[in-house]
């Protein structure tokens, strides 16, 4: 899921004297983890057994530093991830687990397409769940001083799973960022939202699709999913509309958007709830209306391109047509994007990390500077904009 950790957990750890510990000798770091685990009330012998096999994994750090796939534009990224195989397998799994999806929709109000899309993108419906040792990955990332507050609490959640008989520190494997199972959940999320969907007394996300799907649905509901409501709808936008109103900062009713010339690409409006017009490749590219449930996707993954692709794929699995890619203006290369971000920062804009990725903050900064320059404020950076700056 590559998800942010619950705020309550972060607040708890902020009060812990060991919270900020990272870096230095890995052995000393692990000793600190063990001492904190005992301080939290875990049995010392159990703690020793849990940490006996832990090792630092340099491959985890390399994977953390090399996430170039998120530098692709939406159309390229979506075409790469959405294959006919994934569409066919999604339909087959929808039929195979129809009764489970019925339970999910009744209990949590999460559409089957939403879960099928995550299942496909995270592990290809369980076919490849990652081969990184989970405890090693979590310990390595907690020891690394970039984001210890995200990963350190997950180690203690994994210890709790171990005590419950649902985690093997030497053999449990998953993604490089510590997620486990078919829909890739962090240990803390499993503790908080794990569901025994198949009734065997355990939450086994690696081998039980019912457990994985119901746990994922429960987590989405916990994160604010609104039962029975849509999340995304493809639209047509008119030439010359007020592009400054596009983006996730502005939400209006579909009727208000319609007064501006926006129309559903097919069918009717799916809801009367306030929604945002998002145009991931500018005013000449694809366009979507994002309803309130769309924001929940960012609790699962913080990449705008991934989120939009997952949300669109969910609609596709439920019968939506292939999106209209339009004819967007060329975007920027990685190096050009870094130059743009640096120039935006120099003008006083917050772009987040200068990383060559067109994330939400960079999009907002681009839109603001387009308005300053009197350009169509569609938040899509082009070589022409870079030259103007």
UniProtKB/TrEMBL annotation:
Keywords linked to the UniProt accession: Signal
Start and end residues of each Peptidoglycan binding-like domain: 335-389
Gene3D superfamilies found in the cross-reference section: 1.10.530.10, Bacterial muramidase (1.10.8.350), PGBD-like superfamily/PGBD (1.10.101.10)
Protein origin, superkingdom: Bacteria
KW Transferase (keyword) present: no
InterPro entries listed in its UniProt record: Lysozyme-like_dom_sf, MltB-like, MltB_2, Peptidoglycan-bd-like, PGBD-like_sf, PGBDSf, SLT_2
Protein name: Lytic murein transglycosylase
């Amino acid at each position: 899921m590559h998800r942010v950790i619950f705020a309550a957990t972060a607040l708890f750890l902020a009060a812990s004297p060991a919270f900020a510990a990272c870096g230095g000798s890995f052995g000393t770091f692990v000793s600190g983890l063990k001492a904190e685990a005992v301080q939290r009330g875990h049995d010392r012998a159990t703690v020793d057994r849990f940490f006996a096999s832990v090792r630092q994994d340099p491959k985890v750090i390399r994977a953390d530093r090399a996430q170039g796939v998120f530098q692709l534009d939406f159309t390229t990224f979506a075409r790469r991830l959405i294959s006919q195989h994934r569409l066919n397998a999604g339909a087959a799994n929808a039929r195979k687990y129809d009764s489970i999806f019925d339970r999910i929709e009744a209990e949590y109000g999460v559409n089957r397409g939403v879960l099928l899309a995550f299942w496909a993108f995270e592990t290809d419906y369980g076919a490849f769940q990652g081969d990184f040792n989970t405890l090693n990955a979590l310990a390595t990332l907690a020891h690394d001083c970039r984001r210890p507050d995200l990963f350190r609490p997950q180690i203690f959640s994994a210890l709790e799973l171990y005590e419950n008989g649902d985690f093997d520190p030497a053999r449990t494997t998953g993604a490089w960022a510590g997620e486990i199972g078919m829909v890739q959940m962090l240990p803390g999320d499993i503790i908080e939202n794990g569901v025994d969907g198949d009734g065997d007394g355990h939450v086994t996300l690696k081998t039980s699709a019912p457990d994985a799907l119901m746990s994922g649905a429960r987590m989405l509901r916990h994160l604010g999913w609104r039962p029975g409501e849509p999340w995304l709808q493809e639209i047509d936008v008119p030439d010359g509309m007020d592009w400054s109103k596009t983006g996730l900062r502005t939400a209006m009713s579909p009727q208000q958007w319609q007064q501006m010339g926006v129309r559903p690409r097919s069918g009717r409006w799916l809801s009367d709830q306030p929604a945002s017009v998002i145009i991931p490749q500018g005013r000449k590219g694809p366009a979507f209306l994002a309803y309130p449930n769309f924001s929940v996707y960012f609790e699962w993954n913080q990449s705008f391109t991934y989120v939009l692709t997952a949300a669109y794929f969910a609609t596709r699995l439920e019968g939506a047509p292939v999106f209209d890619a339009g004819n967007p203006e060329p975007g920027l290369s990685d190096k050009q994007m870094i130059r743009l971000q640096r120039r935006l920062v120099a003008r006083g804009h917050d772009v987040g990390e200068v990383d060559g990725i067109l994330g939400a903050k960079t999009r907002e900064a681009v839109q603001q500077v387009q308005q300053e320059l009197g350009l169509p404020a569609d938040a899509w950076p082009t070589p022409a904009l870079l030259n103007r700056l």
